[in-house]
Structures are given as structure tokens and as C-alpha cells.
Model the fold of this input.
Amino acid sequence: MGSRTPVMIGVDGMSAGEPFVLAYDTPVTIGRSRECEISMQKLRRYLELSEAERNASTVVNAVSRKHLRVCVSGTIAKLENLSPNGSWCDDARFDQVKHVDLAAGQVTLRVSPGESFVLMLMEQEQIERLLAKTQMYFPVPSTRVEPPRPPSGM
Done:
């Protein structure tokens, strides 16, 4: 068994299907604010919505500006709730800090009734298959780079 890397994958809501490869010992904040490394406002599904749909989205609006901070060191994930609405790990609400051992398996993190992620450790080969399958790659905390667009008129 080779080295494993922390990965979060959106399960439902705006993040559904989007993989996020995390760096060890680097805190990642999930929230509605564009300042967050995983921002609801930067997700592919959100960007596809019209302005009216974005404003009416109960999924996005239920997520706090800065909702949850995740930091993985070794196999231990430190989950820090930043929201007055709480966060959930495997359907158990927590309001402050929770530590989970990812060596025991993946956990499901929920930041609103319609927005959740799975957090796990993956082998490099698994990550490569996942990224090839989804054709998406959002390393966190770096900035997502959009592919160049062809010139108009083509």
C-alpha cells in the first residue's frame, strides 16, 4: 500500500460529483464566501445557475459564509465547525471541534440539509481514476484555473 492523500468528493447539492484533493496539514474552509478554499459560489453547478436561481438557492443560502474548516494530519482529520447552524459528521451534529481517524474509513460531512461531502484517504491510482472519470480536478487550496476559451467567431 502506497502513500494516501486526503480527498473530499461532493455527494449532493452544488458540489455533487466534484473532487477536491487536499494537502496534508493545510486547513481548508468550506462555505458560501468566495474567500473559502471550497466556496459554494465557485462550484460548477452554482456557476451554471442564472442570477435569479442563485439568489433563490436554499442549498447555497443554508451554508454559512465560513461553515467548516478541515485539516488532515496523517490519518487524523480535524473538523472545526465555524457556523452557528452546526455541522455534521456521519449524521452526528457537532458545534465545535471533532477529530476523526480516516484510517477507519471515509466519513460524510454535511454543511446543510442539501450539501454534503465524503472525506477519505485515497491511493494515487484511485485519485487518477477518479479524476479521469470526472474530468475535473480542483486541488485545494490553490485557485481553480479555467481552460482557455477559443476566440469568438470560431
